[in-house]
Amino acid sequence: MLTRHSVDQTWRLRPLAGPVPDDVVGHEFPAPVPGDVHTALREAGAIPDPVVDDNERIVSWIGRTDWEYATTLPAIPRPDAERVELVFFGVDTLAEVFIDESPRGRSRNMHRTWRVDVPELRRGRADLRLTLQAPVPAGERERDRLGARPSAFSPLAPFLRKKACDFGWDWGPALPGAGIWRAVEIQAWSTARLDAVRPTASLRGEDGLVDLDIDLVRTRQGRNRNLVIEARVGASVIDIPVAPGVDRVRGSLTVPRPARWWPAGLGEQALHELTIRLRCDGEVLDERAVAIGFRDLVVEQRPDADGVGFRVVVDREPMFIRGFNWIPDDTSISTVTPADYRRRIAQAQELGANLIRVWGGGVFEDDEFYRACDEAGMLVWQDFLFACAAYPEEEPFAAEVEAEARDNVSRLMSHPSLVLWNANNENLWFWFVQDWERVLEGKTWGDRFYFDILPRVIADLDPTRTYLFGSPSSGGRWEDPNDPTRGVVHLWVPGDYREYDQTRPRFVSEFGFQGPPARATFDAAVHEDAPAPFSPGTIQRQKAEGGTERINDVLEIHFGVPTDFDEWYWLAQLNQARAVRFGVERFRTLEPYCAGTVIWQLNDCWPSLSWSVIDVADRWKPVAYAVREAYGDQIVVLRHEDDGPALFACNSTAAAWESEIEVQRLRRGGRVGREVVRAVAPAHSAIRVDLAALGDDLGTDELLVATVGSRRSVLLGGVDRDYPDDAPAFEVEVGADAASVTVVITAQSLLRDTFLPVDALAADAHADKNLLTLLPGESATWTIRTAHPAAFTAEAVRAIVQTAHAATMRDGSYRGLAQLEAEKAARAARVA
Questions:
Q1: Among 601, 237, 508, 720, which Cα is nearest to 228's?
Q2: Residues 226-277: pLDDT tens digits?
Q3: Neighbours of 164 (CB within 10 A)
Q4: Which end of the chain, N or C, is more open, meaning fewer C-beta atoms within 10 Å of its C-beta?
Q5: What DSSP string describes 218-247?
Q6: pTM surpassing 0.90?
Q7: Other beta carbons within 10 Å of 832
Q8: CA proximity to 113, closest of 43, 27, 196, 5
Q9: Cα separation of 666 and 586, whole Å?
Q10: Please, which residues have CB within 8 angstroms of residue 201's CB and are 6 or more apart in sequence?
Q11: Per-residue H/E/C for 391-402
Q12: What is the spatial distance between Cα 488 and Cα 596, in angstroms, rounded to a whole number?
């Protein structure tokens, strides 16, 4: 039977050619495998942490240096094995392997499995060397050979089949490196082995059907052997005979009345073990176990009177998708563990998400990521790995793309959580809006991948799953890809986030707004005496061109731009929370016309000013709490419509929602009106509720508060700078035990968006709620998880409470954008 021997261990790493610092030249370092050069050097103390201060620049030489990994492979106690192979499940990126100084092969793709014959191991040990080319000069050579192409970020990323964001993105650092980022093992086998196992699980009435599509690899001696594939799910079993020479096998297995797999919130996540055994003359040659799920789920893309709809339907019931875009969870992705994946998926679910989109500038994630999604009922939208650039189609690039796609479709298609394949991120859109037809002057740009190679791979290997030409996409090749009436769109409004009101999308697969990480996360990475919005340390955290300027543009509209950095930091966080919540609620009020939103982005890979809702230190930003409220199954939303203030009851469940909603009209100094309205929102819909009894348009000195149970929505007549609250007045009570703290805040004045930045008192602290609006006389209880409860005294909590209080604008401590731009220009002149 095929045997496996892990080579995941500490290898030896040394630099070869490149701009290597003197204190690294000639040195050899222990290198964990799986791992990468940055991690190995950091753990050896040879470089500083790349994500702290200006270290990204300091370690940039790594991406221009060739490297060597080396180890000794053990002898394999299988002298009878016809084949002995060294299997690399992920090498980053351009590699050559040597066995006892004999060259054995080259890899040019980070995203593929790579096999090398090592017959020497039948006789004894062997020395292994893996040389890795420096990615930056390699990318430059390919760019010069094929001709430069448009790219939103790195001009080199399109020319290597390497994680594109390694070269930098508008939320992440440029740390292109090298390494052996996934497992390595030795496999010994004879006659034949299983290569790819592709089961499609479906429902036929109450029974389950497993359609099997299996690839085999045979040895020379095994070409003429009769084989048998045994497939089993529980008590259901089938034998499929395989004639000599056949290496692709199909068959079907019926499973009576299986328990079903459901997305979270709709039922249980029943997983069944499919066992595949490859036999010859009664001997088991190879065996594979795959978890499958039986589900009734389709992605509908249908023309209708309003355009082209896009929605996910489960058991004939539509789902409103509440999702997040996913980026690689660390700059060194090999350090992300199965526990990390499970924690992050659990966090997304706690925030109300039912879908994760794995974005195309990263990687096809580890099997443990998809397994965690299967177990949690989290749907997965999977991009192919093309993002924000024109890609060459010349060989050997095109062959690598097809092989990469076949490898990963075969690996991932069994997961019931996987709902669709998407060809690329924004490349069709860029072709359309950036006039690539003219700019490229006849050079290839990737359309053959999106409209020929990839759909052909899906039709061959995973034909029942939905394939999109791109995100955004209107469903055709030449139509405007970002037409809001057709398919999926990306909404990046140039001005105030209230511009979301000006569009009616069918499905939003990207939108968001930037904000700083938790302050404790920022302070651990930026060590400046006087940080400021445009100080060097803060700007190192901001990778989006004009990103901080955009934050300030919107702050100016709503609050003014604070002089004090601490206040700027808080309002920038609140600004992000308000913007993203506004967008989600806008799209929720359009259900069922709009069938989903996927926020950019869930996670971060380093401490940065970015669009994430959870920062790299696992701390929830204020926006996370806002999203959790907006992603509730049933919410109330107050909005400004053309004919005045409007109240919506939004119900994304399969049952009608009957509610009584209290709506209060307040002016500074007290309440001026109150009404209780009854609403019945049908399943999967949003309805407008009449508010006529409360009068017409709100004055800029007024606001509405709608409450049903624990759900609440607040609407200002104007913006915050028109409604400066009275100074916050409140009482604080604190109770504690060994692992948590209870904080009760009782409002004596209006407290809008009350927020406790608990990491200011204990770095490990996490609050169960935040951004609560309390009316005078109301109380709310926070439960704070921490190993340091003694830090939470009533005085300390009172000192950290933040609200949307804007009264300080009246005393001149806020400045306009003109003053801010003058300060920025003065700083630039000093630097020059």
A1: 237
A2: 999 999 999 999 999 999 999 999 999 999 999 999 999 999 999 999 999 9
A3: 27
A4: C
A5: E-TGGGG--EEEEEEETTEEEEEEE-TT--
A6: yes
A7: 5
A8: 196
A9: 23
A10: 208, 209, 210, 272, 292, 293, 294, 295, 414, 416
A11: CCCCCCHHHHHH
A12: 9
Q: Are 605 and 618 in contact (CB under 8 A)?
A: no
Q: Which of 179, 171, 236, 188 is nearest to 210 (CA)?
A: 236
Burial classification of residue 769, based on how many CB atoms lie within 10 Å of its CB (0-12 exposed, 13-18 middle, 19 or more buried): middle
Closest to 17 in 3D by CA, of 137, 125, 163, 101: 137
**Phi-psi category of residue 54: left, alpha or beta, with phi > 0 → left and psi -120 to 50 → alpha:** alpha
3-class state of residue 812 by DSSP: coil
How far is it, in rounded angstroms, from Cα 629 to Cα 622? 11
What would the pLDDT profile of 424-477 be if each residue is shown by its tens digit? 999 999 999 999 999 999 999 999 999 999 999 999 999 999 999 999 999 877
Residue 463 preceded by cis peptide, ω within 30 = no
Q: Which helix (H) or strand (E) element contains residue 255?
A: strand 248-255
**Complete DSSP assignment for 456-481:** HHHHHH-TTSEEES-BSB-SSSSS-T
pLDDT digits (tens, 9 = 90+) for 693-703: 777 788 888 99
Rounded to an integer, what distance in angstroms lies between the CA atom of residue 363 and that of residue 164?
Answer: 9
Q: Is the pLDDT of residue 725 over 90?
A: no
- Give the contacts of 624 (CB within 8 A, at least 6 positions apart): 351, 613, 614
Which residue in 706, 704, 688 sits closest to 650, CA to CA? 688
C-alpha span between 103 and 237 (Å, rounded): 45
What digits encode the pLDDT tens for the residues 153-191?
Answer: 999 999 999 999 999 999 999 999 999 999 999 999 999
Place of tokens 């405007």: 480
CB neighbour list of residue 758: distance below 8 Å, 6 or more residues apart:
765, 766, 767, 784, 786, 792, 800
* Cα separation, 112 vs 193, whole angstroms: 19
Q: Quote the CA–CA distance of 83 and 147 in Å, as a whole number.
A: 42
Cis bond leading into 396, ω under 30°? yes
- Phi and psi for 455 in degrees, rounded to 5? -65, -30
Instruction: Provide the 10 A C-beta neighbour count for residue 684.
Output: 18
Q: Which two tokens stand for residue 688?
A: 């407008």
Rounded CA separation 550/529 (Å): 25
Angle between helices 547-558 and 565-588 (to 10 degrees): 80
- CB-facing half-sphere around the CA of 568: CA atoms within 13 A: 23
Distance CA 119, CA 828 (A): 62
Q: How far is CA 182 from the centre of its chain?
A: 20
CA–CA gap between residue 715 and residue 696 (Å, rounded) = 14
